[in-house]
Amino acid sequence: MEIKVHDIVEFACIEELKDHKSLPPWVVTSPEAANYGVVRRMATSRDIVPIGLRGKTREQRAGTFIHKQEILRVITPESLINQMDKHEQQIYYSSLRKIREEFLKLNLTWGPTGSVGFEIATSHKVTSTNSDIDISIYINEIDHHLLVEVNQFIDKLEFRIDAQVEIPQLGAFLLNDYVIHSESGFILRTPFGPQLCNVQDERIRLKVNV
């Protein structure tokens, strides 16, 4: 079972979580947290998956862990592209549809994450009119011109888009941070913490720990 950051995992009940007795009280009564968690970026042993639980409010967030054998289903951000048409009445739909059309032309792999991704995956209403639209873009190597083009496109959309670029076995960075600071230094999020990096010869180079 391949599981990556931002995947949503489904489980049977809170009692299946490693430390369920120490979770905050809102977790027990929150339908959003009862069966779903979002995979976090964190180094763990091979069969233990770090996940985050969410409630109705922004303040209701809790980190925990689950053993792989307790996971019933893995929902990837990429798979949500095929489900988003069921949410065409939602305020974020128009922007996601435009992203889907443009990224198809660019042959980019991507998917919605954050509150929008959670809502599409679980049908629990967790977005509001103030919610940002988070997306993850998956690439295997740096293509500077492509990333600049993508950033220019999403900057023109009607809603704020927080785009994170994921590179397997390496980590992730915020697209806007990369475009502005690719030479001087941008933050790469890794399982072991953030690293200051820059790009040389279209390869990410670590600079210093931050």
User: What ranges have pLDDT less than 50 throughout 5 or more consecutive residues?
Assistant: none
Q: Mind telling me the C-alpha Rg?
A: 17 Å
Q: Which sheet architecture does the biggest sheet show?
A: 5 strands, antiparallel
**Structural class of the helix and strand makeup?**
alpha+beta
Query: What separation lies between the terminal Cα atoms?
Result: 33 Å
Sequence of strands across the biggest β-sheet: 4-3-2-1-5
How many beta strands in the DSSP annotation? 12
Q: Give the strand content.
A: 25-35%
Alpha plus pi helix count: 5
Tell me roughly what share of residues is in helical segments.
10-25%
The topology string of helices and strands comes to EHEEEEHEHEHEEHEEE
What general form does the structure show? globular
Average residue pLDDT: 92
